[in-house]
Write a structure and sequence with these properties.
293 residues; alpha/beta; Alpha-Beta Plaits; Rossmann fold; 2 domains; seven-stranded mixed β-sheet; four-stranded antiparallel β-sheet; globular
Length: 293
């Protein structure tokens, strides 16, 4: 494809489906989108460098929303590096972390010397920490560490690794672990960011969903399990995720809307877990179990 051009998907759906669509797009296009309300419909505009990826997202969105209207256009590219430098902002998360871009290190860390930097190279790829659900997960990790529920030398599992932000945060606290993502581009991106943060030896990431974990970690159970995906797979994978939490370990679930939190909670309490602590803001929520019994 011409490097001066991008693919833009215009995804139009009835306005009543907006909240669910936002959750779906967070999974399909976590790097962001534009949104416009037109009468009783809402249009999401998503830009892609990879035509195949655009086609995959368009098909997945149409399959989820039968009333969706999907249009694909070729549009002029722009200097994304300069655009990110103009609009990217540092993201404090919890009491301990701050997500920054490489060019921010000196300026930001002078003002936030007490925080642990998670350095992400912004591009049209995977999450940069600006989404509430990622920030909620980092907040939960920070709180668990401060409360002594996780500590150096412990092991973690990260399902839906994306850019590797959560894994990097855990690794910088002294934990080691493994992660999985169903998207090969996410796996590649997480490798890049682990190298950028100097924690590549602390974390390994593979391609696949929960069923691929056996090949990476055998029957290992973890001190901390994190899954920042969507509500439906969180419910479907409940028994498998709980089985991977070590006795007395911690579980963080996110990627869900507040209106979906009760259904996700019930899927896990049915398996013997107690009531989780919720972290909420805007439309989004995270659920935290700090003791599986």
């Amino acid at each position: 494809m011409d490097q001066d051009r991008l693919i833009r998907l215009d995804l139009s759906i009835p306005d009543v489906d907006r909240e669910v669509a936002v959750a779906v797009l967070f999974e399909l296009a976590p790097f962001g989108w534009e949104e416009e309300i037109l009468g009783e419909r809402v249009v999401f505009r998503v830009h892609f460098e990879d035509p195949l990826r655009a086609e995959q997202v368009g098909r997945a969105f149409s399959a989820r929303f039968p009333e969706a209207e999907v249009q694909e256009r070729s549009v002029q590219n722009r200097d994304w590096a300069l655009a990110w430098r103009e609009f990217f902002t540092a993201v404090p998360a919890g009491e301990d972390f701050i997500v920054i871009a490489p060019w921010m290190e000196e300026e930001i860390l002078d003002r936030h010397a007490q925080r642990i930097p998670i350095v992400i190279e912004p591009k049209t790829a995977f999450g940069t920490g600006h989404h509430d659900t990622t920030a909620f997960c980092l907040q939960a990790v920070s709180e668990l560490f401060r409360n002594g529920r996780i500590d150096q030398g412990m092991r973690f599992f990260d399902l839906g690794t994306g850019s590797g932000i959560l894994a990097i945060g855990c690794a910088k606290l002294g934990l080691t672990g493994v992660g999985l993502d169903i998207d090969p581009l996410a796996v590649e991106n997480s490798h890049e960011n682990m190298q950028l943060n100097g924690v590549a030896e602390s974390f390994s990431v593979g391609l696949g969903s929960l069923d691929a974990l056996d090949a990476m970690a055998g029957d290992e159970r973890f001190d901390l399990v994190m899954a920042n995906i969507l509500a439906e797979p969180l419910i479907e994978l409940a028994s498998g995720l709980v089985a991977r939490v070590k006795q007395g370990g911690c579980l963080i679930l996110s990627g869900l809307l507040r209106i979906q939190a009760e259904a996700v909670t019930q899927a896990y309490t049915r398996l013997g877990l107690g009531k989780p602590r919720a972290i909420e803001g805007g439309e989004w929520a995270a659920l935290v179990w700090d003791d599986r019994r």
